Amino acid sequence: MGRGIAYTSALGGFRVSINDVSQENLDKAKLYIETEMQKSAEKGYLKMEQVAHALQSIEYPTNLEAAAREADIVIEAVFELMELKVEIFKKLDKICPENTILATNTSTMSPTEIAAQTLRPEKCIAMHFFNPVHKMKLIEIIRGLETSDETMAIAKEIGKKLGKETVEVNEFPGFVTSRMNCLIGNEAMNLLMEGVASVEDIDRAMKLGLNHPMGPLELADLVGLDTRLRNMEYLYKTLGEKYRPFPLLIKYVKAGRLGRKTGQGFYKYER
């Protein structure tokens, strides 16, 4: 998600710094961004001048302080683990100038809880991007309890500059899209386990019958089954029984079948 947000932000005219815990991950992000931009240029979606300017706008520092100390906005895009997000926000709160907005790209978790660990809760917000970021048009923007009107307005304006549509969502676990996706995905796994239809036919039915761009099992593989399981566990804890993760999802995660990133989930992929 981070590399997709960086890709889109650079094309939107922003100067971007990507930070990660390892040089290997940064190298992969750089390769992905360069490759995707080149493909888009070859297909005529981008001009080569756009690509060149965007690539020159991106830096890849391994040091968080170097990446964030001059930022106007920082968008965190780590795993859906509250402890990790809080840890990063505490660090950013110390590193960033007092006017910097801190945004979390969470799909389920409370921006209020994350913001409360900083000295700038009024400048904290959730901006939920969708994968792949450069193709998906929506950003869910979630205001925390202390988020100011100014911060909300800036987040919406950033979304507009990135060429996205934004929806303002009241804070509640899972927001809008994640709650719906988790329920649909869970039921798709139930159908598969019961032998109602194959993986391919469940997805095909949803795409052709309900006009979904991706089937729920295909989407789960794209998101990552471990990520989906963490989301389900959080929603089950906060919203109750109907979000209990289906046993098949737990089994696949235990087996290391995490989707596209491992080469196998509900489908098999070429590495």
Automatic annotation (TrEMBL):
Location of the 3-hydroxyacyl-CoA dehydrogenase NAD binding domain: 1-171
Pathway: Lipid metabolism; butanoate metabolism
All residue ranges annotated as the 3-hydroxyacyl-CoA dehydrogenase C-terminal domain in the record: 174-269
Keywords: Oxidoreductase
SUPFAM superfamilies attached to this UniProt entry: 6-phosphogluconate dehydrogenase C-terminal domain-like, NAD(P)-binding Rossmann-fold domains
Family: Belongs to the 3-hydroxyacyl-CoA dehydrogenase family.
Entry protein name: 3-hydroxyacyl-CoA dehydrogenase NAD-binding domain-containing protein
Species in which this protein is naturally found: Neobacillus pocheonensis
